[in-house]
Amino acid sequence: MCSHYEAPSPHLIAEAFGVAPFDQGRLDLWPGYIGPFLRSPDGRGEDDESPAAMDVLTGSFGLIPSWSKDSKIARRTYNARSETVAEKPSFRHAWHHAQHCIIPAVAIYEPDWRSGKAVATRIARADGELLGIAGL
């Protein structure tokens, strides 16, 4: 994932994902900041064909493993690579226990280096709808 994203307002998240309204702080998020994420309480709906109910929670942008004594580790654990997520100590427990979530976003920001300097470039859906980014 990118290292900078714009979270939607609580109203937009509630409307898009059918969750209860909630309190949220900042919308401009960097690793270590607190932001919203969605998860299924039990991983599935009431029957196998219905969509799972979603809970909205807030947590650190960047995974904080249970063994970590320093929450600043989130500044280094915001990006899990598919080829190493199952083995890296920071991610493997969450990966093997299917602790997945959806991170709602209005836009992500990536550096554009064409000028020789990092210029933040906003990337969003053309239709203005929310992004749903896979998370652990």
What features would you describe in this structure?
This is Abasic site processing protein. The chain has 2 helices and 8 strands, in the order βαβββαββββ. The chain is mainly β. The strands form 3 sheets. It has a 4-stranded antiparallel sheet, with no helix packed on it. It has a two-stranded antiparallel sheet with strand order 3-4. β6 and β7 form a beta hairpin. The longest helix has 8 residues. It is globular and about 50 Å long. The N and C termini lie close together (11 Å).
- Per the principal axes of the C-alpha atoms, what is the gross shape? globular
Strand content: 25-35%
Number of strands: 8
For the report, how would you describe the main beta sheet? 4 strands, antiparallel
Number of helices: 2
Quaternary state of the chains: single chain
- Walk across the major sheet and give the strand order: 2-1-6-7
CATH architecture classification: Alpha-Beta Complex
The termini sit apart by 11 Å
Question: What is the CATH top level name?
Answer: Alpha Beta
* Mean pLDDT rating: 86
Topology of this structure?
Elements: E1 5-6, H1 10-17, E2 28-29, E3 34-39, E4 55-60, H2 92-96, E5 101-105, E6 107-112, E7 119-124, E8 131-135
Antiparallel strand pairs: 1-2, 1-6, 3-4, 5-8, 6-7
Keywords: Covalent protein-DNA linkage, DNA damage, DNA-binding, Hydrolase, Lyase, Protease
Protein name: Abasic site processing protein
EC number: 3.4.-.-
